[in-house]
Each structure stands twice: as C-alpha cells, then as structure tokens.
TrEMBL record:
Cross-referenced SUPFAM superfamilies: TrmB C-terminal domain-like, Winged helix' DNA-binding domain
Pfam families, A to Z: Regulator_TrmB (PF11495), TrmB (PF01978)
Annotated organism of origin: Natronococcus pandeyae
Domain of life of the organism encoding this protein: Archaea
This protein's name: TrmB family transcriptional regulator
Boundaries of every Transcription regulator TrmB N-terminal domain copy: 11-76
Transcription regulator TrmB C-terminal domain location: 111-355
UniProt similarity note: Belongs to the transcriptional regulator TrmB family.
Amino acid sequence: MDQETLRAGLMDAGLTQYEADAYLALLERGAAPAVRIAEDTNIPKSRVYDVLRDLEEAGYVETYEQDSLRARAHDPSDVLSDLQQRAQRLLQTADEIEERWEQPGIDDHKITIVKRFESVLDQFRELAGEADNQIQLAASPEQIEEIRPALEDAIDRDVFVKLCVTTGPSDDHLLEEMEFADIATEVRYRHLPAPFTVLVDRRWTCFSSQTRVTDQYGILVDDPTLTYVFQWYFQSALWVTWDLVYADSTDGNKREYVNVRECICDVAPLVTDGVEIPVTVRGFDVRSGDDVTLSGRIVDIISARTPTRDDGSLTLTHLAGQATLVVESDGAEYGIGGRGATLEDIEATRIIIETAETAIAD
C-alpha cells in the first residue's frame, strides 16, 4: 500500500491529515523530536505540539520530555483492534444497507404492538368517533360495557355496527341482561370466548387475544389490505356461523347491508325465483373514485361458483371469489361489488333493500 492510500485509510478511521502524517512519520522513525516531525511532514511548528498530544489521547503515540518534547509510536495493538472493529462495523453496515434496499417498502401501512389492553380500547374509542360507515366488533359483555358510549355515538351517526357477543359456555345469562338497541345494528351470539376484534371502515383493525396472562398485548393496524384479512376472519369465525339475536327493526320496510356477499346470500333465492327487488346502493365509482348513489332493482347475481341447492341459495364459500349484484337503474345495468371491487362498476358501502315484500329471512 502506498503512502497516500495509507494516509487516506487513517483519515477514514478518524484522524486529521496532520495527525495521519505525524503518525506515519513516527512509524518510520520510531521516535523523534516534535520539531523534526514538523519538518518532515510540513506540519506548522505552531500546530505540531497539539497534533502530537491529540494522537497521544487517541492512543496512537506517547510523548516525553528530553531537552524538548519528543514522541514515539505507541504499541499498535490497541490501534489495530480499533481499526479492525471499525472495519467490521463498516462491512456490517454495507450488508445491512444492501439488505434493506432489497426489502419491499412498508411506507403505506402501519402496524403497532401495544402491551396494555386499555391501549387497544382507547384506540377503538378514537376510531369509533371517526367511523363513517361500519364497525365490526367481537367482544365480551364486560368489554362491550366499557365501550358502550362510543358505540352509542356511532349508532347516532348512522354507522352500521355488527356486534358479536362472546362469552364462556357457562355465561349465557350475561346475554339476557344486555340491551342492544342503542349500540348495534345487528348482533350475533358466540357462546365461546374469542379475541377482542374490531374493524372500522375497512381500514383499521384493533385486535387482542386476552386469553392468557402471557398474551396481554394488542395489535393496531392502519392498512386496508391487512384489515381485509381480518375481515374474512370476522365473517367466517365470528359472524355467519353464529345465531342472530338482534337486528334493528326501526323501519320494517327496509333492510340494510354493508357487505355485498351477505346481501347476495339473502337475495339469491328470490332472484332465482324472478322476484323484483328494489334497491338503493351507496358507494363510489371504481374507476373515478366519485361518490355514487343509485336506485333501481336487482336483476342478476354473478358468482364464481353456481348454486348447488335447488332454491338457488348461496353461501359465503360460493362467494369467496367474484360476488356481484347486477342492478338496473334508469335503463342501464351496473355491476355492484364489495370491498376491493375491480370487475364491477361500483364498490358498495351500503346496500338498502327498500321493501318488506321481498320477505328476506333472517
């Protein structure tokens, strides 16, 4: 290695140019007066004393008095160890930069782990206050009472609240003591414990298992894609398999849905029989993103799998792929899809069946 490259390496290790020159001179000479070092390196004599003392503090040299200030290179073992550690850190840094560069970005979503269940409840209260369309919630009676004011406020703002009440097998009596009119649109009862699960407006999720002392933590998700995964967990494990125990009946001439697949499950037999079903759809245009409200009648259903029952009924299994309502409005037909609709014209946020004559069963 030539002198210039060696000096550059020492400067990379943190030495100044004067310090690197002085140290290299002492390595060659072994020991020398400060004045001689200044002459050999073109370090100003007024600076050489400070340069040597700085090198001494860094462990590179030692100084002593012999008629004048003299210096000699220190045992390099400590210096070599420091340089090797620096080199290792630089290699590790380079490897880490390369690895992070190759990893996919995660800027568009946020996942937070919290240690206290109270933090999960606090986050839910905040999200419930901002909800525009739908809250899906699975909670125990005790948890529901803690967040009752937030649910009452959501119902007052016409937010659709789907509530799954979860208890232990011996706690059925707790359900009988609960009032749902002011806190939920629909309620189902699961007579088994379940994680506290909340989904708000297809974007936010609050989740906490709370089953064992070692599981006292929660997950807060601010991401539509991950919330979609929790959506299917809620539908399959916490909703459709359990009995409906309450449904808002303030208007007997309409039924509302926030999930197009649930709507399709209910109306499929009627569509098969040729029943004309008046409907109002609120949502947004898939291509432009503009808000849309249209009224018309359901004329067809498109699903990835055809019904296997004689009455034309469908299950969520049939609708795991495409699930489209075809609505005729003002002489045109529109495809109505659910969350993440791509094949349809409109992604629905609320579907309202406007007449009791369709006799949709709970």
